[in-house]
Amino acid sequence: MQYQIIEQGKFKYIEEGEGEPLVLLHGLFGALSNFKDLVEHFRGKYKVIVPLLPLFELDILHTSVSGLAKHVNKFLETRDLKGIHLLGNSLGGHVALVHTLKHPDRIKSLILTGSSGLFENGMGDSYPKRGDYEYIRKKTELTFYDPAMATKELVDEVFDITRNRLKVIKIIALAKSAIRNNLGEELNSIKQPTLLVWGNNDTITPPFVAREFHKLIPNSELHFIDRCGHAPMMERPQEFNLLLDNFLKKLATPATVQ
């Protein structure tokens, strides 16, 4: 399904449905297509919003995790969104964490999947090799448990990015920023209910990273999905959506008075 991209000043986003806001943040090579199944599942019950993160539009000094978090904060302020369920995959999870730590009042719950912020294996020291399609295809396949998930369309998107020298510089800047910006000592101050959904076969942010997040974030629950890599909402959408559905339903149910 094609969604209308709304442009409001310097912000671009899609918005589907009505209800409590469910804001989705994509990763370094992410796109709207990453959340297609999630949007379709939840648009009947929530106002699902996917801002397009300006990965390549910020000046080089602000091409960082904190620069993206500032952009997200300005976007949420502009839209005057409150009581947000904030979900992030990979770099988007890192941005969601930084935002929640700095602006907790707007966030009702936090959902992380394959998030950076503690540890990640990037594309490797040699990445990205410009003009080497086969190399990019193999690296894209590593995102998933099932290599067939790395469709020609997806590989073409990544390849096109890596052919642009300035975009490559910004990818490297963002990746280095994610490694430097380790949140381990701050995570215990997150009070929001937090759902952690991880692929059991994630090689970029492996399962031990999820366990560490679970240990450090006080009010968190952790679920693993088998035969699944770094993007569970793409690779195992039904399992992912069921876990998220159950988590959000619990938050909507008033606590029982003893």
UniProtKB/TrEMBL annotation:
Residues 21-237 form the AB hydrolase-1 domain. Signal peptide: none annotated. It comes from the Bacteria. GO terms for cellular component: membrane. InterPro entries: AB_hydrolase_1 (IPR000073), AB_hydrolase_fold (IPR029058), AB_hydrolase_sf (IPR050266). One of its GO terms (molecular function) is monoacylglycerol lipase activity. PANTHER family: MONOACYLGLYCEROL LIPASE, MONOACYLGLYCEROL LIPASE ABHD6. This is Alpha/beta fold hydrolase. It comes from Flavisolibacter ginsenosidimutans.
